[in-house]
């Protein structure tokens, strides 16, 4: 620890350090001189080709592949052409680019995989220089030929060669060039002398770097950063120009005082660093040049190679592998001499603690006085991740753990995660593995990619241990490793098929995510067909076996497996394959042995190959299906004779099949066709091919009643069907006189209600009334209502003594005249039944006198009915019945709607009554603001919020809690201050809170939704329902919500009611008051079309739901136990948003509304849109709201 800063060198305000990673295990006697070398990024393998220009057959160049620690992975003599460049793909495949333009691809162990060409024209002029680069699209290759032409392939896995334009004035090879990424396109930056050109797919553009030194006459080296954001140019004057790759911004220009062309240049930049630098290497001399214009020189002992990385530069020579990087900020803060950073003080405190010194307490007190202990722990954890020495890591982590002991709310995840990461990193950095990743690189490449790298190197045990240690899901981790192991196992020729199959089965077992068919496919590709078949026996999914079985020419087995899978598409695939492979007779015999396949093939033939289907039926002597075939074929015939012939063939086949019904039906079809032909000849009306039903309808609509009667009798059409057809035809023609004659011709078999309905449907209530008297008593009320006769309907309802029909009639009445008239009639009719002593001429009695006489007769001084029980029984009405009838009448008293808050809100929402101050609390979502209306003074107080505010609730400890944006926040009303309690939907950027409410236990429930494009138009399934508990923890109850809205609890706290608006439903859950848990989701009410969109809600003391209907202009009362609508209160505006009970004894209903999304015309019609209304006279009470207890 004392020598941590010994290898630090200052560069401006930052420090750089050179760390030894490995002493190389290879044996290179001549060093790296005369070697072509390429190392993969992220600590990848190293490829080395000795003396690449050697062409003698007796002494060929040697291609060697090593790990980053120098461990040999592969070595073989190079027997192909002259190699110009080596490079690595993103999946650790080696690319060898030859001078003839051929690119050979090898795996990590030197096995040849494939090859491709960079174009035929390259072979003539040959490749002079090539570069391998990585982009978001994959691994790319760029070359320049002796003819000064550039060719580019952005992704070698989807090879598309692009020949780039010529560079003006370029003769021979350019002085230097590099690959850029601009606007998500791969481009080339080419230097010709002092001129720079950018080549893309269609153009060559001259560019000029801003502020380039005028002393420069030629650009001799170009270097692009790892992220393609920065560019460095080295000129013949010894200057280094650094700037952005778009050549619009200059960072700096530094004079190196060295004019010789460098061997290599590489950017060395830590992510988020403000001072990137460029590393320049000449023969055994290294110079680090920063944007601060300072430099750091290093003298090298041997020929070296620079490997650019995401956050550093690796330096490889014959004996050592080193890492050059900017010292990370956390390490600098802790280890810098005389540092007083929190992390440095915590490290010292821990050292003193281990010495049992009192100074530990002094250091800790100093950190805690500055309230920086959490920052100190964070610095130590971060610094541990950036150190390569295990002892230094342990020291820093112990210090962090020591500091955590004095923090009560420090999250453990960063510390635990770093410990896990370092254990993995130290394992892969080990000399025997040789993958020297930094923590930054590890986080960038992900665990899955690291696992793949270990698998490619066949380090299966280590890969499995890492997956299990990091608790990677099995199908992403262990199963992938085992599958790769199995695929390599089947390539081992020395072991028998049975042994390999058994070994793989024992090893893999039932591991999740492993398909034995993929392993079998690999075995088949290796020429081991029998092994492939044995492996397929372990595949539990039959559908996965079929494609490979077909490839292996095991057709019969493939068909059996396809049928087992139950996948019809798969069966069709196999059947089609068999049809093409076999002769017709063998094919049919094969299908006969597989009934499922035969049935599916028949279905296919019905739609695609009719002739084949006929052959199948003939071969099976299936007369029934042949008859069906001829019937279907007849419909395709245009000529009547041909159609009759097909039908006659069908009759013959049905007779052979002894299907008398089908034969007779077909004969009747032929008879109908003959009738239709005769009708066409006599009347000129074409009804050829019509069904019996359509023929009758056509005849009736044309007025050919005699022909219709004849058809009706000849074909024995049921009376009810014929009457319906004739009724509909006469009504369509508006032939009311003929319809009346038809109704009187004989007793209707379909009754007379259809006559009423058909007349009403065609807006002729006058004709409809003619048939009302003929309908059955059960349909009388319905018939009277259909023609608009409310009095007649009332008479019929009273006569039947049906309370349900009475309620229906009342619901159909207008609020004033009709209702008064019908209720008066109910009273008169009731009195006629119960009080024959009263005069029955109601017209001569005033309402007051009738009520007085009724009451005198109705009750004596003991409040008992004077009507005898015998008379009550005679008329079917008793005392309870009378009470129920008049209670219904009295309950229909006046309901008053009054606009009380005239200040309009864009979207008024979330009303809550505060009983203590007689105020109404509510929000304007898009205001965005919280408001309080004082019902005593009619004054409004408001407080604006930063983001959209969806709901507000009282807080037991004072103030309020709101759902604002995607956070729960506390509101101090007096100080007008808002502080965050908890955040939700952190991974989403387009959601906000909507409605919310507090449960009986003091938990705050609120839901989210996507931000609306227009009212009720938004991205679906983005919302969730959350609850904020008193300890400020947040529970997610469910997601996939469209528009979270109204919510409330039943008075007994057993049920939770909820609205997701775009489902047009009110839903219920079983509710656990102790835990806040929801279960057994179900629908209790679905809104009708005219009711609008369900929005906010509240519960009355009787447990009934009051639901605001957005765009419906109403609030409806719903019984959640029966799912029925009990009452509707209409308001003078359409966009009703929410409601709550308030006022004295909670008998008033307050209703909020909105005007957002309304045009000028709509606002002119609804000037009170956005106001708040008070509804009185409902006859029910509400429940006081609950307060958040946190």
UniProtKB/TrEMBL annotation:
Taxonomy, superkingdom: Eukaryota
GO biological process: endosomal transport; intracellular protein transport; vacuole fusion, non-autophagic
SMP-30/Gluconolactonase/LRE-like region domain location: 907-1154
Presence of the UniProt keyword Hydrolase in the record: yes
Active site: 1095 (proton donor/acceptor)
InterPro entries xref list: 6-blade_b-propeller_TolB-like (IPR011042), Regucalcin (IPR008367), SGL (IPR013658), SMP-30 (IPR005511), VPS16 (IPR016534), Vps16_C (IPR006925), Vps16_C_sf (IPR038132), Vps16_N (IPR006926)
Domain Vps16 N-terminal: 5-416
Principal location class: cytoplasm
Membrane topology type: Peripheral membrane protein
Group of enzyme by EC: hydrolase
Residues that coordinate or bind a divalent metal cation: 909, 1045, 1095
Coiled coil: 346-373
Compartment(s) of residence: Cytoplasm; Lysosome membrane
This protein's record includes keyword Transcription: no
EC identifiers of the protein: 3.1.1.17
Gene Ontology molecular function, alphabetical: actin binding; calcium ion binding; enzyme regulator activity; gluconolactonase activity
Keywords: Calcium, Coiled coil, Cytoplasm, Hydrolase, Metal-binding, Zinc
Residues the entry annotates as binding substrate: 992, 994, 1012
A Pfam family per the record: Vps16_C
The record's free-text note on cofactor binding: Binds 1 divalent metal cation per subunit.
Required cofactor names: Mg(2+); Ca(2+); Zn(2+); Mn(2+)
Subunit composition and interactions: Core component of at least two putative endosomal tethering complexes, the homotypic fusion and vacuole protein sorting (HOPS) complex and the class C core vacuole/endosome tethering (CORVET) complex. Their common core is composed of the class C Vps proteins VPS11, VPS16, VPS18 and VPS33A, which in HOPS further associates with VPS39 and VPS41 and in CORVET with VPS8 and TGFBRAP1. Interacts with RAB5C. Interacts with STX17, MON1B. Associates with adapter protein complex 3 (AP-3) and clathrin:AP-3 complexes.
Family as reported in the entry's similarity comment: Belongs to the SMP-30/CGR1 family.
Identification of the protein by name: Regucalcin
Species name: Ameiurus melas
């Amino acid at each position: 620890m004392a020598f941590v800063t010994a290898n630090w060198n200052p560069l401006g305000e930052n420090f750089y350090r050179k760390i030894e990673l490995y002493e190389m295990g290879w044996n290179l006697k001549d060093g790296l001189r005369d070697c072509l070398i390429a190392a993969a990024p992220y600590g990848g393998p190293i490829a080395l080709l000795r003396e690449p220009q050697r062409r003698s057959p007796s002494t060929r160049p040697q291609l060697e592949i090593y790990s980053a620690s120098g461990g040999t992975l592969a070595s073989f003599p190079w027997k192909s052409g002259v190699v110009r460049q080596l490079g690595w793909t993103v999946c650790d495949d080696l690319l060898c680019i030859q001078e003839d333009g051929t690119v050979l691809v090898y795996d990590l162990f030197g096995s040849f995989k494939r090859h491709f060409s960079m174009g035929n024209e390259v072979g003539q002029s040959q490749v002079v220089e090539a570069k391998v680069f990585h982009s978001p699209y994959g691994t790319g290759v760029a070359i320049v030929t002796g003819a000064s032409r550039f060719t580019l392939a952005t992704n070698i896995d989807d090879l598309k060669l692009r020949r780039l334009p010529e560079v003006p004035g370029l003769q021979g090879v350019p002085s230097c060039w590099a690959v850029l990424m601009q606007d998500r396109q791969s481009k080339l930056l080419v230097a010709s002398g002092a001129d720079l050109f950018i080549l893309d797919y269609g153009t060559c553009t001259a560019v000029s770097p801003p502020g380039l030194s005028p002393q420069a006459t030629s650009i001799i080296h170009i270097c692009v950063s790892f992220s393609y954001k920065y560019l460095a140019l080295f000129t013949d004057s010894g200057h280094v120009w650094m700037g952005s790759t778009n050549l619009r911004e200059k960072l700096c220009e530094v004079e190196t005082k060295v004019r010789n062309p460098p061997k290599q240049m590489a950017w060395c930049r830590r992510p988020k660093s403000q001072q990137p630098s460029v590393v320049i290497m000449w023969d055994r001399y290294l110079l680090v040049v920063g944007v601060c214009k300072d430099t750091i020189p290093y003298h090298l002992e041997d020929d070296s190679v620079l490997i650019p990385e995401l956050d550093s530069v690796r330096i490889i020579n014959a004996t050592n592998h080193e890492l050059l990087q900017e010292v990370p900020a956390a390490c600098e803060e802790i280890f810098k001499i005389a540092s007083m950073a929190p992390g440095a003080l915590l490290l010292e405190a821990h050292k003193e603690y281990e010495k049992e010194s009192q100074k530990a307490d002094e250091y800790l007190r100093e950190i805690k006085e500055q309230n920086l202990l959490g920052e100190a722990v964070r610095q130590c954890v971060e610094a541990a991740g950036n150190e390569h020495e295990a002892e230094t890591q342990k020291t820093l982590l112990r210090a962090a753990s020591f500091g955590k002991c004095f923090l009560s709310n420090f999250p453990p995840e960063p510390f635990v995660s770093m410990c896990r990461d370092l254990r993995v990193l130290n394992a892969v950095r080990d000399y025997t593995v040789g993958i020297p990743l930094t923590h930054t690189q590890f986080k960038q490449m992900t665990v899955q990619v690291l696992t793949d790298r270990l698998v490619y190197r066949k380090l299966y045990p280590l890969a499995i241990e890492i997956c299990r240690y990091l608790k990677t899901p099995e199908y992403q981790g262990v199963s992938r490793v085992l599958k790769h192991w199995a695929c390599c196992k089947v390539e081992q020729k020395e072991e028998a098929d049975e042994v390999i199959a058994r070994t793989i089965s024992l090893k893999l077992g039932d591991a999740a995510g492993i398909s034995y068919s993929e392993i079998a496919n690999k075995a088949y590709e290796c020429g081991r067909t029998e092994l492939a078949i044995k492996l397929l026996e372990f595949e539990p999914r039959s559908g996965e076996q079929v494609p490979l079985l077909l490839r292996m020419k095991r057709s019969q087995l493939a068909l059996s497996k396809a049928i087992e899978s139950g996948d019809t598409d798969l069966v069709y695939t196999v059947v089609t394959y068999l049809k093409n492979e076999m002769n017709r007779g063998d094919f049919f015999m094969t299908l006969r042995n597989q009934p499922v396949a035969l049935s599916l093939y028949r279905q296919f033939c019905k739609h695609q190959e009719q002739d084949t289907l006929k052959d199948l039926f003939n071969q099976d002597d299936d007369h029934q299906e042949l008859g069906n075939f001829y019937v279907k074929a007849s419909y395709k015939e245009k000529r009547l004779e041909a159609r009759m012939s097909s039908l006659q063939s069908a009759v013959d086949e049905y007779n052979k099949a002894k299907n008398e019904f089908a034969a007779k039906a077909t004969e009747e079809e032929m008879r109908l066709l003959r009738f239709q032909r005769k009708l066409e000849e006599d009347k000129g009306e074409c009804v050829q091919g019509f069904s019996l039903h359509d023929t009758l309808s056509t005849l009736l609509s044309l007025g050919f009643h005699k022909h219709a009667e004849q058809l009706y009798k000849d074909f024995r059409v049921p009376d009810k069907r014929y009457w319906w057809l004739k009724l509909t035809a006469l009504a369509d023609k508006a032939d009311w006189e003929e319809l009346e004659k038809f109704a009187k011709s004989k007793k209707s078999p379909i009754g007379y209600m259809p006559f009423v309905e058909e007349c009403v449907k065609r807006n002729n209530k006058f004709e409809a009334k003619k048939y009302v008297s003929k309908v059955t008593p059960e349909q009388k009320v319905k018939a009277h209502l259909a023609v608009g006769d409310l009095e007649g309907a009332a008479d019929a309802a009273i006569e039947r003594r049906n309370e349900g029909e009475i309620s229906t009639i009342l619901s159909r009445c207008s609020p004033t005249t009709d209702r008064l008239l019908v209720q008066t009639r109910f009273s008169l009719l009731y009195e006629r039944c119960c009080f024959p002593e009263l005069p029955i001429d109601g017209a001569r009695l005033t309402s007051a006198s009738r009520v007085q006489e009724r009451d005198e007769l109705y009750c004596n001084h003991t409040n008992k009915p004077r009507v005898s029980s015998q008379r009550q029984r005679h008329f079917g009405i008793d005392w309870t019945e009378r009470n129920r009838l008049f209670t219904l009448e009295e309950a229909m008293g006046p309901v008053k709607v009054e606009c009380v808050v005239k200040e309009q809100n864009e979207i008024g929402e979330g009303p809550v009554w505060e009983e203590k101050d007689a105020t109404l609390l509510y929000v304007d979502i898009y205001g965005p603001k919280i408001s309080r209306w004082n019902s005593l003074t009619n004054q409004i107080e408001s407080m604006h919020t930063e983001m959209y505010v969806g709901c507000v609730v009282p807080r037991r400890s004072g103030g309020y809690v709101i759902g604002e944006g995607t956070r729960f926040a506390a509101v101090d009303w007096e100080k007008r201050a808002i502080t965050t309690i908890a955040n939700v939907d952190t991974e989403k950027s387009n959601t906000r809170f909507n409605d919310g409410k507090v449960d009986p236990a003091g938990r705050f429930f609120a839901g989210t939704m996507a931000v609306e494009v227009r009212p009720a138009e938004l991205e679906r399934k983005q919302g969730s329902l959350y609850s904020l508990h008193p300890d400020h923890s947040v529970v997610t109850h469910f997601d996939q919500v469209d528009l979270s809205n109204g919510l409330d609890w039943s008075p007994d706290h057993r049920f939770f009611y909820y609205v997701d608006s775009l489902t047009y439903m009110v839903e219920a859950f079983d509710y656990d008051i102790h835990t806040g848990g929801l279960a057994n989701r179900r629908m209790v009410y679905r809104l009708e079309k005219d009711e609008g969109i369900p929005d906010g809600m509240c519960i009355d003391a009787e447990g009934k739901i009051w639901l605001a209907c957005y765009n419906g202009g109403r609030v409806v009362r719903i019984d959640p136990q029966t799912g029925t609508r009990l009452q509707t209160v209409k308001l003078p505006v359409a966009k009703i948003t929410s409601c709550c009970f308030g006022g004295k004894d909670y008998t008033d209903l307050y209703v909020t509304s909105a005007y957002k999304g309304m045009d000028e015309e709509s606002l002119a019609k609804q000037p009170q849109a956005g106001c708040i209304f008070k509804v009185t006279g409902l006859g029910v009470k509400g429940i006081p709201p609950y307060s958040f207890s946190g």
